[in-house]
Amino acid sequence: MLYRATIYLLGMVLNFLGVTLIIKAALGAGFWTSFFIGVSDHLGFTVGFWYGVFQLIIIFINAKLMNQLPEFRAIIPVLLESVILDFWLEIVFANVDLTTAPFILQVAMLLGGVAVVGMGVAIYILPQFPRAPVDQLFLAVSHRFNLSLQLGQTIVAMVMTTLAFMIGGPVGIGTLTPMIFLGAVIQLCYTRFYPLYYKFHPNSEQELQKQFM
After folding, report:
1. 0.70 cut: is pTM over it?
2. Could you tell me which residues come within 8 angstroms of residue 45 by beta carbon, excluding any fewer than 6 positions away?
3. How do residues 66-91 score in pLDDT, each as one tens digit?
4. Could you write out the three-class secondary structure of the chain?
5. Mean pLDDT over residues 85-104, rounded?
6. Which site among 82, 86, 123, 207 is 20 to 30 Å from 49 CA-CA?
């Protein structure tokens, strides 16, 4: 349990480090963030409020796609994510501002952010602990329609980017880059980390047996 929890938290910390790098690159928000900002601009309330509302809705969408009962345990990672994101944004990178930085530096931070997010997501889905609904969604889509992780993530990203654009969200290079590349990064990292995860797992044989039961 300690091993799984450590991997889970490591992946989540890396994920939101990457999210922070994308935000600080100042080239546009990610596709989910762009959508929540657009909704907030039209209907009021904060972006965080709509983040929470849509997370709850997505819990039921995921359940429908997976033909399972709603996973209310997913509320746990939502709370963890808010704390970790604030740690990176409000403490570690609080004084970082690249709005007037050279474009090449902004692009480098953006691409680095996408790479770190992909690595973090690939790691934190390995222990099969409850995932945030927005992270579970691309897995549910992949499962429901028998798609690769890459294609499932890309479809979700394209749909949310389109919706964000339609309602006037801040869609830009920082939105399109994850939409194009994040699925491939997750797929690549997952296939590399999967055997390593079980290689170092203290109960690797039992866990692998569970995978095939």
Report:
1. yes
2. none
3. 888 888 887 888 778 778 888 888 88
4. CHHHHHHHHHHHHHHHHHHHHHHHCCCCCCHHHHHHHHHHHHHCCCHHHHHHHHHHHHHHHHHHHHCCCCCHHHHHHHHHHHHHHHHHHHHHCCCCCCCCCCHHHHHHHHHHHHHHHHHHHHHHCCCCCCCCHHHHHHHHHHHHCCCCHHHHHHHHHHHHHHHHHHCCCCCCHHHHHHHHHHHHHHHHHHHHHHHHHHHCCCCHHHHHHHHCC
5. 88
6. 123
**pLDDT for residue 2:** 85
CA dist 213 and 206 (Å) reads 11
Positive or negative: CA dihedral 101, 103, 109, 113: positive
Quick one: residue 58, left, alpha or beta (phi over 0 = left, psi -120 to 50 = alpha)? alpha
Tell me the chain's radius of gyration from C-alpha atoms. 17
- Whether the Cβ atoms of residue 28 and residue 172 lie closer than 8 Å to each other: yes
User: Measured between alpha carbons, how far is residue 73 from residues 49, 53, 95, 130 in Å?
Assistant: 19, 16, 34, 6
Integer CA distances (angstroms), 141 to 1, 85, 117, 151, 157, in order: 28, 25, 19, 9, 12
